Amino acid sequence: MISQKRTFSILSILLKSKSIASGDLKPVFKPRHSNSNKGQPQHFEKNLPQTTVELKPWEKQNISKDAFFKRKYGNISPEDRKALNAKVERQRRFRAMKIAHEKSLQEKANEERERARALAREAKGFKTSNSNYDTVVDRNDTIFDYVFGTHPVKAVLAAGKRRMLDLYTFNNDDPDIVELAVEKYGITPKRLKDKNALNILCKNGVHNGVVLKTNKLEIPYIKEVGHAENGEYKLAIESLEDDSVNIETKTVIRDGNEEVEELYPLSLYLDEITDPQNMGSILRSAYFFGVDFIVVPNHSTAKLGPVANKASAGALDLIDIYQTGSSLKFIDSVRQSGWHVISTSGRPTGAKPREEVNDDLEIPEPHLKNKFIELQDLRTILRKTPVMLIIGSEGSGVRTNMKMRSDYLVGIPKLRRNDNIVDSLNAGVATGVILQNCLD
């Protein structure tokens, strides 16, 4: 007879215990904070250390910040006022010196890092035996730009808006480039034996045998534009070193003729141009036709890097470019300063052009279809007031909220009939056509 073993289960014993039956089993983990309000929503913040926020002096007095400082410094003596201004100026100067010092340290650290990488590559055998040539190249487009092409490299060297680091050449000893690099910046060109090294640096772009390694181009922020008169205008530009705002007086670049009594500035606002090729083409046309400056948003815009520079034939470094973080507020401030804002747009069905632009240039009715003017009217407007043209992308064009803030809209008429395939021009070509119609 086969004996059967009895199986014991701890689970059955626990289930029969009185503590389980009566519900008196105590939890293994006891929360740090007892739940006195059962059924109420719990918050994670109760597990964080309690911190007290120290109130500002004006918050303690329950007044605004401006009122606090007016009360504090509004009635000081001229001597104290002079000492206070000197203190503020000294603090700003020290802050700018600190920023410049930290920036120089960062640049030196980056150079040392690049030099160490080059030495490491050389130790691994990437150095050629011919001392007249160099194949040690290391691409780092996070910190640096690699400007390629004869005209872009010449423009960057001539403009001097950024720090030059290295010049790489392959079968290209352009005397102008070599002279600028050696005499102006003290850079000796590194002749490469392998063309593929330049292809790596410019990501297979058309480099014409020359690549310039530089720091990235810094685009300053523009706060507002001022009134224009006597061929001059003012711009409020944020300093790249600190938060101060500098008022710069600019002169209109174009040359006038006998028929024009006074020259007014012409500028461009590029509304979300995301293609770097189109960006470069627009910059090239703008520089050629004498546009005074260009403004781009700090978001949803093409990278102002080597690709755009190549497409612009070097105009990227030669023309003044600024950026803004608030497009709508900036356009409003431009209009308040007496500038006329004109957006490019395809003319919708049923839109009728204005009969003519009168002498006092009245702002039209706020309906898009009534804002359209003819191309030849642009010249009349620029003779009387400064103008900012808004250029949109090929896909979506100028945004509607930008059009609503514009004084006028202008489009390029299509002369070929019975065709719905080619319905628009390239952004760079369209910009060139419009700029040509603005000028005499």
From TrEMBL:
Superkingdom of this protein's organism: Eukaryota
Principal location listed in the UniProt entry: mitochondrion
Family per record: Belongs to the class IV-like SAM-binding methyltransferase superfamily. RNA methyltransferase TrmH family.
Name of the protein this chain belongs to: rRNA methyltransferase 1, mitochondrial
Keyword S-adenosyl-L-methionine listed: yes
Gene3D superfamilies: 3.30.1330.30, 3.40.1280.10
InterPro entries: Alpha/beta_knot_MTases (IPR029028), MRM1 (IPR047182), MRM1_MeTrfase_dom (IPR047261), Ribosomal_eL30-like_sf (IPR029064), rRNA_MeTrfase_TrmH (IPR004441), SpoU_MeTrfase (IPR001537), SpoU_subst-bd (IPR013123), tRNA_m1G_MTases_N (IPR029026)
UniProt subcellular location: Mitochondrion
GO-annotated molecular function: RNA binding; rRNA (guanine) methyltransferase activity
Gene Ontology CC, one term: mitochondrion
Keyword Ligase: no
Chain positions covered by the region annotation Disordered: 26-47
Domain RNA 2-O ribose methyltransferase substrate binding: 146-220
One of the Pfam families matching this protein, by short name: SpoU_methylase
UniProt entry keywords in alphabetical sequence: Methyltransferase, Mitochondrion, rRNA processing, S-adenosyl-L-methionine, Transferase, Transit peptide
